[in-house]
Every structure is written in C-alpha cells, then in structure tokens.
Amino acid sequence: MAYAAISDVLTMTIANRLSVLLVVGFVVLALLAGLPVAVIGLDHLACGAAVLLLTFTLFAFGWIGGGDAKLAAATAVWLGWSHLGDYGLLTSLLGAGLTLLILQFRRLALPEFCCRQAWLMRLHEKHNGVPYGVALAVAGLVIYPDTRLWQNVMGLV
C-alpha cells in the first residue's frame, strides 16, 4: 500500500501488477491464517468485486483514474464488507484533505530547484488529477488492523 501511494505521487500511476499482487497476497495470507474459504470468497473477494464494479463505473465517467479503481478494489478485498463503510468514509475524508492540499500547492510559485523535479511539476500542473492512491492506501493501512485477518495473523505470531 505504501508503494502504491508513493508511486501515485511520483508518477501519477499505480501499476496493475500491484493490485493483482495485493489480491493474491491476501488469498495466500488468508489461507495461511485459517480464514474459512467461504469467508475469503463471500466476504472479501465478493467485496472487492463489488468495489471494482463501482470504481470502474466512476472511471468510465472520468471521475477517477483506472489505477485508483483497481487499488480501491484490491484494498476492499483485504478489508471485507464489515469495514467497507469505514474505508469509504476515511478515504473520502483523506482524499478531500489531499485535494485541498494539492490545490493550495498548485497556487504557489515553485522555486527553481523544484522546477527540475518532474514529479513535483506533475503535481503542480493545474490540469492533472490528484494522486488519490495516497488516500486509498492510507485509509487501508489505518483500517486493516481492525480486520479479522489481522487478528488471525497476530494469533499466529
């Protein structure tokens, strides 16, 4: 998740392989942690599929990026239905704060040394989007310790 956030800030992209790796990693860890297969499928994978359907609809309208859509779905797999509302709310709040911060940043004149940094110039460009992967990742990391999977994993340690 941290890699996704950093990648989004630096390149304004989130690689497809990262979202796939997150889902595969979840399935492997969930099986090792003893989550029942029915819970993995009905609670976690179904939640991720529903979020993917929703976020791809948002992507189709041009409201979010494709990487953000896939990252939100992969994160939802880790959290499941029981934490989806909290994830949505926290992501929205963090995303709003991030958007306001980026908009304020874009109003500033950048010093010359900053203008030589391609990633800073991308963030500063008024016509670019916001690296929403940061909000998605932070919200996921904040909520994950409340999940059943985390409790099971900590029971193994």
From TrEMBL:
Keyword Hydrolase annotated: yes
Q: What is the E.C. number?
A: 3.4.23.43
Where in or outside the cell is it found?
Cell membrane
Q: Name one GO molecular function term.
A: aspartic-type endopeptidase activity
Keyword Transit peptide set for record: no
| UniProt membrane topology term | Multi-pass membrane protein
Q: Which GO terms describe its cellular component?
A: plasma membrane
* Positions of transmembrane segments: 20-38, 45-64, 84-103
Instruction: Name the principal localization, coarsely classed.
Output: membrane
Please name the Pfam families in this protein's record: Peptidase_A24 (PF01478)
Key words, A-Z? Cell membrane, Hydrolase, Membrane, Transmembrane, Transmembrane helix
Where does the record place the Prepilin type IV endopeptidase peptidase domain? 1-99
Q: Fetch the PANTHER family from UniProt.
A: PREFLAGELLIN PEPTIDASE (PTHR36506:SF1)
Q: Please report the name of this protein according to its UniProt entry.
A: Prepilin peptidase
What is the species of this protein?
Lichenifustis flavocetrariae
